[in-house]
Amino acid sequence: MKSASPIWAILPIKSLGDAKQRLCNILSPDERRELMLVSARDVMSALSRSSRLSGILLVSRDRTALELGREYGVQQLIVNSDDGQSDAINQAVEFLRKKGVTATLTIPGDAPLVMARDIDVVCNTLESGPSLTIVSNSDGTGSNCIAASPPNLIPYRFGRNSFARHVSSARAAGVEPTVLTLPRFELDIDTESDIAALMNHRPRTATQRFLVASGIGLRCSAPRPCPPLQVGHPPELAVVNK
Predict the structure, then answer these.
(1) pLDDT tens digits for 154-201?
(2) Domain ranges of the chain
(3) Would you call 107 helix, strand, or coil by DSSP?
(4) Is 158 left (phi over 0), alpha (psi -120 to 50) or beta?
(5) Whole-prediction pTM value?
(6) What is the pLDDT of residue 82?
(7) Residue 13: which residues within 8 A CB-CB, separation 6 or more?
(8) Which of 10, 80, 133, 143 is disulfide-compatible with 92, CB 3.0–4.6 A?
């Protein structure tokens, strides 16, 4: 079969004020907001340079995120609530399907290392008939990219263990999914260790420059001191009368 075309990318961005909650113990609200925005900019830049995409749909209710879409001149879909990535993408799929789009590629806004050629690789695996390609996150449990033809081939259900759910849904639809290993796609920024891993890559993204300039990168990469040893007599053992 020929490769599916046209292919539209779906980029969901939740309200920036609620972004990166798993980092709230080490980053301030402003730092988390800026980290999400600069990461989404890196992803949008990669999408805009892809040679295989016919369009990009940014899905959000956040005014600043929508301004990013206007800056890049991409289509926007304003959702009414932050019900999660799954709901946003399912809404986007229906929106595009009604416009005649026959294939889509979903991508999170927090995978800043992704490059245009990674996106093209995923697109090139998608066939014009029922077809699905998936890229997991770094631990193999999440779904960092799903390309589907038709767009509503499966229901999108992100979250814990979403990779297994999406693979099972594809097989239930009679399609054996193509699973790709693309390291730049797999690193999403959810935890302190993710930030440290990002800083170990050659600096080339706006996200990495932000992490350096803000001091966040150094803060997350520095070794943590071990807790002090407790010096003293061991606790007395309780005597159990039998």
Answers:
(1) 999 988 889 999 999 999 999 999 999 999 999 999 999 999 999 999
(2) 7-188
(3) coil
(4) beta
(5) 0.87
(6) 63
(7) 36, 40, 58, 59, 60, 62, 65, 68, 109
(8) 10
Cβ–Cβ < 8 Å for 78, 60: yes
Q: What percent of the chain has pLDDT over 90?
A: 71
Rounded CA gap, 52 and 124, in Å?
A: 8
CA distances (Å), 34 to each of 17, 26, 226, in order?
Answer: 10, 14, 31
The one-letter code for the residue type at 3 is S
Q: Which fold has domain 7-188?
A: Spore Coat Polysaccharide Biosynthesis Protein SpsA; Chain A (3.90.550)
| Two structure tokens written together for 190 | 């959810």
Q: Which two tokens stand for residue 34?
A: 């800026």
Please give the Cα distance from 93 to 149 (Å, whole number): 11
* Residue 234 burial by Cβ neighbours in a 10 Å radius (0-12, 13-18, 19+): exposed
